[in-house]
Specification:
The complex is a heterodimer of chains A (116) and B (110). By secondary structure, chain A is an all-beta fold. Chain A is built from no helices and ten strands. The termini of chain B are far apart. Chain B contains no helices and eleven strands. At the A-B interface, strand 4, strand 5 and strand 9 of A face strand 5 and strand 10 of B.
Chain lengths: 116, 110
């Protein structure tokens, strides 16, 4: 099956710092990248959708200036949490959509962010 | 927007007992997918249902899509400790983004 990597797998940072999360599709090209987050004991919620080379579309309630998404290539997308606060502590999961249009959804292994 | 609710939120069963989780939508769904998420892990795709009244089986798992395409269920026969995790129903939007149900966390006691 398709391989998706996320880095880092976990990160602990101080309040006010920025954290960058990378998501790579290792054996396929992704025209679209979905970013989800999951708070403890809750479901996954879509944060934003990005298409390669264009600006991301954010879901209601997600601050675009706080969660910066870059999708510069068909195999790499990054999510930067700027000026992180404890309430941003969550499990962030990327989901690249293959360029070939297959229906299968792939997920990265996730990044657990803890903001102190 | 569209939402899907799942019940129960939590379920503890003794190993060997059956387990069922239900997913309900207020609107008709074009498709429904089920995922399993182990603690600390990411969602893993189980199945997709598209047709009204569709029933699919995977070993001890039986998935059903309602006739009105507004509800779905996942039934596990004779649970095992490896079945532990949270089960989510989801549906995909026009851009294939997923809307996740609230999930059912299954605990299997040995």
């Amino acid at each position: 099956g398709a391989v998706v990597s996320q880095h880092p797998s976990w990160v602990i940072c101080k309040s006010g710092t920025s954290v960058k999360i990378e998501c790579r599709s290792l054996d396929f090209q992704a025209t679209t990248m979905f970013w989800y987050r999951q708070f403890p004991k809750q479901s996954l919620m879509l944060m934003a959708t990005s298409n390669e080379g264009s600006k991301a579309t954010y879901e209601q309630g997600v601050e675009k200036d706080k969660f910066l998404i870059n999708h510069a290539s068909l195999t790499l997308s990054t999510l930067t949490v700027t000026s992180a606060h404890p309430e941003d502590s969550s499990f962030y999961i990327c989901s690249p959509r293959p360029r070939d249009g297959t229906d299968t959804q792939y997920f990265g292994p996730g990044t657990r962010l803890t903001v102190l | 927007g569209q939402q899907v609710m799942q019940i129960p939120q939590y379920q503890h069963v003794q190993e060997g007992e059956d387990f069922t989780t239900y997913c309900n939508s207020s609107t008709t769904l074009s498709n429904i997918q089920w995922y399993k998420q182990r603690p600390g892990g990411h969602p893993v795709f189980l199945i997709q249902l598209v047709k009204s009244g569709e029933v699919k089986k995977q070993k001890r798992l039986t998935f059903q899509f309602g006739e009105a395409k507004k509800n779905s269920s996942l039934h596990i026969t004779a649970t095992q400790t490896t079945d532990v995790g949270t089960y989510f129903c989801t549906f995909s939007g026009s851009a294939r983004q997923l809307t996740f149900g609230s999930g059912t966390q299954l605990t299997v006691l040995p």
